[in-house]
Amino acid sequence: MPIPDTARVAIVGAGHVGSTCAYALLLSGLAAEIVIIDSDRSRAEGEVMDLRHAEPFAHPTTFRTGDIEDCAGAAVVVLAAGAGQGPGETRVDLAQKNARIFRDIVPRVVRSNRDGILLIATNPVDVLTRLSLKLSGLPPERVIGSGTILDTARFRHLLSQYYGVDPRSVHAYIIGEHGDSEVPVWSLANIAGMRLQDFCVAQGRVYDQPAMDAIFAETRDAAYEIIRRKGATYFAVAAGLMRIVETILRNQRTVLSVSTLVSDYYGLDDVCFSLPTIIARAGVVDKLRLDLSEAEVAKLRRSAEVLRETSARIND
Ligand SMILES: NC(=O)c1ccc[n+]([C@@H]2O[C@H](COP(=O)([O-])OP(=O)(O)OC[C@H]3O[C@@H](n4cnc5c(N)ncnc54)[C@H](O)[C@@H]3O)[C@@H](O)[C@H]2O)c1
Questions:
Q1: Cys staple from 10: which of 5, 74, 258, 297, with CB 3.0 to 4.6 Å?
Q2: Is 18 helix (H, G, I), strand (E, B) or coil?
Q3: Residue 62: what are its φ and ψ, rounded to 5°?
Q4: What are the pLDDT digits (tens) for 78-121?
Q5: Which DSSP letter does residue 37 get?
Q6: What is the per-residue pLDDT across 217-241, written as a single tens digit (0 to 9) for each?
Q7: Using a 6 Å CB cutoff, which residues line ligand 1?
Q8: Catalytic amino acids?
Q9: Could you give the residue ranges of the DSSP H alpha helices within 164-293?
Q10: pTM
């Protein structure tokens, strides 16, 4: 079996998300070679030219444009091709549109690269992760959606602002769908191992549930607010994609909330959604089966149901 080149990353879709991911990878110095592929070749060429000019300020990195077949040999293939949700467009409309694109590109990616990891960013990301798993025939360990990595980051950021600590010291996860039905795991949220309620007592403050509910609502609705103001979101998701690529290429075994195939978890099977997951060189090492409260399990079941309904609407 050919060993994928740990220094090469391919990105399919050079729009806001794909090109910002390439930029984050350049600044990180993680990849020696980045291949940028887009059905709009001129766009991909423009992005590559612009990225190359940043190289002297960053790390030696070879950029090139190519066709889907140039995913060959990449350790990770990032899929960021396809549209975002337009005004008045439903989640199902978007799923149908982007599923058509994935039915074209995923089999071609896998024909040229059977050994790399597919990292999906395109929305609806959970539904497209499951579709990619089926279209590719790859083992579930090697098909990963960015899932709620972004929502978890937003959640930790807002909690850190509220509690006045570094976001890296806030351990709190959003699980389930990357979207409206996502679930905040309040029962396990902590700062330095202290439950939020205990942290409040220690700090001489009162635990304020309505304030926590507002933080979750702001987390869940952040994309709408950003899209209303600037048309798209891409910096934070690109940083998240870079972080996933880093744990893969450096075999770091980082726990990240990403979307992968779930089986036998509170009776949920054959659906892709996010749980904290250990990711390393070979992809998924383990999906952590959090011990949830009853209310959280009910919300997660609802989230899985929403995903199943959307998958059914695209005949997956
Ligand atoms: N997972 C997340 O957390 C997250 C966050 C933000 C955006 N997104 C999603 O990422 C996707 C991309 O968003 P964007 O803002 O970069 O969109 P964009 O419109 O800026 O870019 C999409 C690119 O895909 C290209 N493309 C379309 N069909 C293609 C094909 N068949 N082959 C190759 N390239 C193709 C287009 O030419 C375009 O350059 C959207 O679905 C968006 O909803 C996901």
A1: 74
A2: helix
A3: -90, 125
A4: 999 998 877 777 778 899 999 999 999 999 999 999 999 999 99
A5: E
A6: 999 999 989 999 999 999 999 999 9
A7: 12-18, 38-40, 43, 80-84, 98, 101, 104-105, 121-123, 125, 146, 150, 178, 232-234, 237
A8: 178
A9: 196-203, 209-220, 222-230, 235-249
A10: 0.97
